[in-house]
Each structure stands twice: as structure tokens, then as C-alpha cells.
Amino acid sequence: MPGGGYVSSYAQAIRLLYERPAASYVFDNAALVIAERVRDTIEEWKIVDQWGAGFAQWVGKLDGLFGTICVALHLSGAAFDSILGAARDAGLTISEETALKAERIIEEFIIPSGVCFYSSMIGGFQDIPLALASFILTSTKDRFVISDFTIGVRALRGLDAFTVSKHVSVLNAGGWLTEEKGNRHATSWIVTPGLRQYFTERRERERARKGAIQEKIMAAGKERRQQNEVGRGLQHDAHVSAFNAASFKNAEAPF
User: Distance between CA 79 and CA 229 in Å, rounded?
Assistant: First the structure.
């Protein structure tokens, strides 16, 4: 980079952006299509309550963040071009190319990061009973033990039996479950007869919701695997090219 390296160039770019007057930016027609697609994606994620209400509220803010990222990419690109000697006016219109880059940041980095964060943070006392209720409704079991809950409910994984029993007691008090008497602290429960029949509609909605979440996760995983395979393929091709070049050079070298 000219002018003293990367640090100096970044400083120049930030200065150019800071000195730029405030303005309103708009999408061109193609970029507007991308923006609508991102909005649809955000709406799909907003209905996912697997990771609590906090996740849905956070996702709802990504619409505005998408616009912010678009403006940042739009202006920073022009700033760095100016530093490199290819000065150009950024203008007030955000292009399809910029919107696509912002969409990729949202879908491939920000949302997956949010999923990781909220799935690790879930466990607030208000979230766990909802997760437990969903698990009980969609399960086919009529009797549950501690291990059923620690395996089937993400928020309870890694918790000790006493803590799990304390959380399950909320549903026991609500009439969903009945404790099997034995130890000092309950370790097994029976589903109240007629519970799932009473909540038949809710049970089907929960099953459909969980199926949709699973499909999203599997699709995201498949896409990441495909990207990794492409990356490994390009790396392999580069290694082969380097090997061939070295072989050619050695073949031409005099002995």
C-alpha cells in the first residue's frame, strides 16, 4: 500500500470517510431486489424461537444493519480507490455488487454468529420452560427421566440432575407432568393423560416449526460443506500448479 503501509492507508481512508458530508443513499433497481431478499430471509429467521425471544429481537435489527453495511462497503471502496490513485466519486446509489457483498456478510457471518451466541446463552428461567414444554409436546414418550431432558433440550445440556429437576418442577406444578416418587429429588416424571390431545394444534405447530429449523440448519451446513470443498479444490489445484511449475523448472535446469 502507498504512503507508509496498511496502517497509514487505513488512517487515510477513515479520514476521507469522516470528512464526507452526510447524505442519503438509495439502492439501484438490482440492489433493491437483493435488499428485499435479505428482508425475506430476516423475516424467516424472526419466527424461529428455538433460541428464545432475545434471538428473534436481535434478528429483527438486521434489516437496518444490512443498510449500514451497504453504505460502509459503498463508501470504503471509493475511499481506498482514491488512496490507490483511482479517485472516483462514490455517488449516492448503492449497486447490486455492493448489496450482494452485504447479503453474504449477513447470511454467512452475522446470522450464524448470532445462532452460536444465542444457542450458548439460552437458559434464562423464562426460556427453559418453553423449551421443555415444546420437547414434551413433540415427544412420543409418556415417561421422562433426567437424561431425556439433558439430551433433548439444548438449554439443559451439561446441567446436574438437581438443576434439571428444578426446571422441570415448573411444568410439574403446571399440571403437565406428575413426579414419580422415590428419591428426595424427582428424577422421573409421567406425562399427564390427555395433555397432548388437549394441545393437538399446538403440538403440530411445534413439530412443523422444529422441522423448519432443522431444514435451515441442514441447508446452512450443506452450503458450508460445499464452500469448503470448493476451497479445498482450489487449494489442491494451486498446489498441483506449483508442483508442475517446479517440475518444469527442474527439468529445464542444467546439471
Answer: 34
What's the pLDDT score for residue 117? Answer: 79
Cα Rg, the chain, nearest whole Å: 27
Phi and psi dihedrals of 178, rounded to 5? -125, 130
H or E element, residue 244:
helix 200-252
Q: Check if the beta carbon of residue 147 is closer than 8 Å to that of residue 105.
A: no
Indicate the helix (H) or strand (E) that contains 145: strand 143-145
pTM assigned to the model: 0.51
Helices (H), ranges, 20-143: 29-46, 53-60, 62-83, 96-105, 111-121, 127-138
Distance of CA 69 to the CA centre of its chain: 17
Q: Which pLDDT score, from 0 to 100, does residue 50 have?
A: 62
Q: Splitting the chain (255 residues) into consecutive groups of 10 residues, what average pLDDT does each group show?
A: 59 77 91 94 78 81 94 83 64 92 91 78 61 86 93 86 86 85 78 84 70 67 64 54 42 34
Give the separation between CA 67 and CA 175, rounded to whole angstroms: 47
Instruction: Decide yes or no: CATH 1.10.10 for domain 127-198.
Output: yes
Q: Cα separation of 188 and 211, whole Å? A: 27
